[in-house]
Amino acid sequence: MSIAARLKLVLLIGLLTIPPTIAMAADTPDQAAVRKVLMDTYDTPQSHLVVDPVVVGSNRALAGWTQGERGGVALFTREPDGWRLSLCGNDLISQPDSLVLTGMAQSDAQILSKAFTAAAREAPPERRALFRTFGETIRMN
Questions:
Q1: Are 56 and 74 in contact (CB under 8 A)?
Q2: Less crowded by CB within 10 Å, the N or C end of the chain?
Q3: How confident is the model over 15-25, as a mean pLDDT?
Q4: Model-level pTM greater than 0.70?
Q5: Backbone angles phi, psi at 20, to 5 degrees
Q6: How far is CA 42 from CA 35, 36, 48, 51, 141, in A?
Q7: How far is CA 27 from the centre of its chain?
Q8: Where does the signal peptide begin and end (predicted)?
């Protein structure tokens, strides 16, 4: 085996041993800002909030969240001073038709919904199932 091939093998083995939480890409500034809104508002020492995935479009974002045995999806709107929580509900609000009802263009709704669905597939099935447990859709002010 050549030196170059050995070096590639050593690098590959090193990458495979990095814990997944470190190997994952860091949040973009927008993803971090959306996550922070939910964490600052709803995370408590008694009931830890998990916010993931967070998918950002041009002026809207979707975030999946779980807290204990409950979960849902939050829709955010970009405002001049940052991200504002617009809706909380179950995973139905991440569907294109639901997003269009909030005023999104059909094409933007399709893109955001598809991105959220793909990102949510990375979560364990039992966690994804919790996204359906938030009963009603609540418009936030």
A1: no
A2: C
A3: 37
A4: yes
A5: -55, -35
A6: 11, 10, 8, 10, 15
A7: 10
A8: 1-25
The residue type found at 106 is Q
Q: Which two tokens stand for residue 82?
A: 């940052």
Query: How is residue 85 written in tokens?
Result: 């929580």
Q: pLDDT at position 25, please?
A: 60
* Spatial contact of 28 and 53, defined as CB atoms under 8 Å apart: no
pLDDT above 80 (res 15) = no
5, with CB counted inside 10 A (0-12, 13-18, 19+), is exposed
Q: Is the separation of the CB atoms in 94 and 73 below 8 Å?
A: yes
Give CA–CA dist 53/122, Å, rounded: 8
Q: Where are the domains of the chain?
A: 26-139
